[in-house]
Amino acid sequence: MAKWNQLVITDAGYQLSAKTLAGTKIQYTHAQTTDKDMSDLTSDELKSVTKLDSVVQDLSVGIITVQDDHTVNIPVKVSNQDVTADYLLCGLAIFAKPVDGDEILYGIATAVSPDLMVAQNGSTVVGTNFKLKVHVGSAANVNIVISPDGSVSNEELEGILKDYVLTSELSKKLPEGIVTEGGNNVMTGSNVFKADPVDADGNAYVTGSGAVAAAEGHFAQASKSGGVTISGVELEVDDAGKLKYGDDLVLMANKPQAPGFTAAMDFSVGQPEWTVTLPKIDGGASIVSSTVQYRKSGDTDWTSIQSAVSVLSGHVTGLTGNSEYEFRAFVSNYAGDSPYSNTETVKTMDDRIFGVSWDMSSDPKLTRTDAAVGLVAGINGSQNDFDTVGPWAKMDKTITDDKGNSFVRIPKLYIKKTQTDKLATWQVSLSKIDDTWYLPKCFWDFTNQKELDYVDVGRYEGTISSGKLKSNSGVMATVSQPIGTFRTDAKANGTGYQLLDVHVIDVWQVLFVIEFATINSQSIMNGISSGSQVKNGSGTNHAGSSGFLSPTGAMDYRGIENLYGNIFQFADGVNMASKKPWVCDDSSKYQSDLFAAPYTSLNYSVAESGYSERMGLDTNHPFAQFATKTGDSESTYYSDYNYTPSGNCVALYGGNWNGSGYDGVFCWHLYESSSYLNSGIGSRLVKKALA
């Protein structure tokens, strides 16, 4: 019996798969078999194949099914029908194409020990069935097309027919007491008719003398003219068929129809927003109020919000976060309340994903994915859609502690990174989507083992005053101190205070590249990399959420001044043993020159000095990314410089005023010892949200 290797997705297949993340529809078109032995080809060699050699059969694919968000099942039936000569089944290829594009070879499976496919000689057709699990960027964008000559297996047919009922069995499925047209039906319980019932002649029931008889003795009595008198005044129908009470025309009103209604999460304020649309038919009387009701999913009681008819939209406050609520509405006139509107379900959580992807080419531009598709990001007051979405909307640059330190508050968020030879992705969300996402350690309380709602990052580079590291405007940041001094003076502020570390840098790197869809940060904003150090506060008077004063001025990313440039900043939580990075999660245990627990070594080494082309990604420690391949271009790939370590070193981040352009959001200087001090090196204060 044949043994097969796993299906290998080709380079062209990976590129087509990545396009589905941006919404491109694709379809799997057909399969081919070959008698060429490819079992000795490596995975990389198979990835480069664009055409199958020595093709024997061209086959249809069966009914494609979706297994999960990134996997589809493709059945292929290989038989000896129409095969005129025996052959060894050595390989199977799947082909695919964009709905409006050209076909490519998507994936190849090779046999370790092939099956013999004998020629058809008039006897029973024989063969083998394949069910290939195929990776795709977004399974929702696989367009399923069934070939006219494709066949359906018993299993597939049973799946299609499982929800159908035989005509002979239909009566057994219907509920007892169902009303049938033309039959004798017994009606029990309360019944509501959209139109009043009439007799065979079209007359309404309980009319004329019958109505008088029914009413007599209750609220009216028959008049001599056959009408009804109420309080001595006759109620009758005139010659025009209009109901009159004495000389006055009687106006009748019904309850209004159900209103239109929508409810959805307003992410800009973090509250559900509702909107009521008045019905076109008000029942003949003016609608005087609308009522919105809501309850947590699973509860029985509703909470009502009644408003004047002039108020047809609003927000609901005080709801529990990360919960699901049901909303509905009705309107009222003087005849009563309308039926309920449709019911809307709203999650009180922002679970949108914002992402970018990179094809690993020399072009540093990224492709927006998920909820970031179509968004625009500008600086210096230009349009920036990220000001009102996701984590960016919740960043607050007005935070001041009781010591006068200025901070930018970054809300708790979750990150997901992936990287292969052909594709890298960055994604961020305010909600944890699944276990493939990680919470940066700056949002974790190691003592009480719980998540923290935010982290405060110094708006300005750090200044030492009275033995404490500060974040203040209008002063020059302190330089020429070793990392140990800065670390001690940061902690001197109290519980939760620390130096800028690798975990905070990870957060702002991800936010930056997703917002601006590039890994070339200097193409967006230049940091100060020539001239001299500038005073804190010189980069905070531009328009918009981010920007710079001039090509040589202080840049400002969402309130964080000199994110890179001006002076190098010590990045705590990283120790370098020659070219091997060691990292630590718990900021309370940071210590220089330690290469043992609680520090852990990454599974890669740092490359030689040069402009970064590839970053390492240790999936156990995805927050720490350093260059594993360098080149010599400041406008391609990551475009930022990497300084290679020698011996035991600490980490410096961002670039400085005498760096000759060597600055940026991915710029690392991993070269200096823990005792090193320099006029171009300083620090930044951070405060975790600890009690």
TrEMBL record:
It comes from the Bacteria. SUPFAM superfamilies: Fibronectin type III. Gene3D superfamilies: Immunoglobulins. Residues 255-351 form the Fibronectin type-III domain. This is Fibronectin type III domain-containing protein. It comes from Levilactobacillus lanxiensis.
